[in-house]
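Thread: "does anyone have the structure for this chain?"

Original post by V.I.:
We have the sequence but no experimental structure in hand. Need at least a predicted one for the grant figures.
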Amino acid sequence: MKRAALRFALVAALILGGGATVTAEPRSAAQQPLIAAPGQGVFLHVSDIHFNPLYDPSLAAELIAAPIERWDAIFQTSSITAPSASGSDSNHPLFNAMIQAAGRTLQTYDYVLNTGDNLAHDFHDTYVAAGGGEADYDDFVAKTMLYVDWKLEQAFAGVPLVSAFGNNDALCGDYQLTPGSPLLAETGRGLPVVAGDPQALRDISIGGSYETPHPVVKDHDFLVLGNVFWSSQYENACGTAADDPGSAQLAWLEWTLFRERLAGRSVSLIMHIPPGINAYSASRSPCAGSPPTMWTDAYTARFLALIAAYRDVVTDAYAAHTHMDDFRVISAADGTPIVPVRLTPSVSPVFANSPSFTLFLYDRASAAPLNYVTYVQDSSPAGPDHPLWRFSYNFRQTYGSDDYSAASLAALASRIQTQPATRQTWAAHYTGAAPTPINAGDWKAFACAQTGLTPDAYETCTCPGRRDRS
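Reply from O.Q.:
Generated one for you, tokens below.
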């Protein structure tokens, strides 16, 4: 994602409504705070932190030997104080700066969502290059997973953390999460929302999925899916080849949704990898062969049918994985939009995107998301050693939407495809303050992925003149 591309001006923030104020520092006079009215709450959504604890290889021996509670003190001894640059995963200065920026933006959140990929890319190779021994590798992976969640818990003390596994979060390798892996149980024991619930701990220990009650809203739960098993790149390399953890997880999801309906409850889905098309890969060879998918087609079809069948239970969904600021819309068979899926941008700038985090406004009675604002790291105002985190945009004000919902996202997707000005605004925010990979020649490859979640639907949007794939 390093191609030269168009850049567009970011849209300033405006006012949401009356009530308590959420401020950010620094903030220009043109930017206004997010407003939470009575009966509304705010939660923090972060993802794809991709933390590399070995950004300074000289610290490796100490980190391997020390408990995670001592890691911060060890990181403070490093001569590397600048946050990670574009093209690299998150180091301690970047991760710490993001946490501090989120804390300055709002003193108290109702909860924090972390939609996965705590581990840096090429984690094993980096570990070996830093002098780590194989005998300590599994323990070091687990400690890094626990450290990322622990840092978030420490920064927002008393605020529940709901955390998911990403494709990099595995002992065996990328896209190789092993059912029953010791890492699953160990990570679960480090999450208070899981550790205190025997059923949740059993579930996460098997496949990385669990259910936990919403901390504020009555009769509403989070269903957290360790859905790397559905990925088209998944390989059970360290497990039993005959197993089908993807089908087993779909069965778990269906049973859980059935139980939720019987109990008169509703759910928010939390996952790392979103359903649909890999838009960036598809943009490299548009209309050439079948578009690359995020998940195996069979799992996608079963999941979409399941969500349509339980549209009265599933209210919203949160994912990430692409590292970019975007969304997906799950629709029923008749095309009716039913579930909004937020794709929050990453903290890691490894794909030439700006480090980012998102604040969501929601209704404390129904759990319905109402709006969101995004903050990005912008190194230019203060120099590379002291980058600033600044307001990027307010969803409803920027796009003129009356609400945040599946219907409003579907309407926005339509406007992105038909209105150049809306398309330019969306493209400008796609990578935060960094140059966007979306240009006049390939924008359809990215825009059509928002609502075209199956190969047929996507091709109908991107290549309408192409013959039927069948």
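V.I.: this helps a lot. The longest strand covers residues 369-378.
O.Q.: and The first helix runs from residue 60 to 65.
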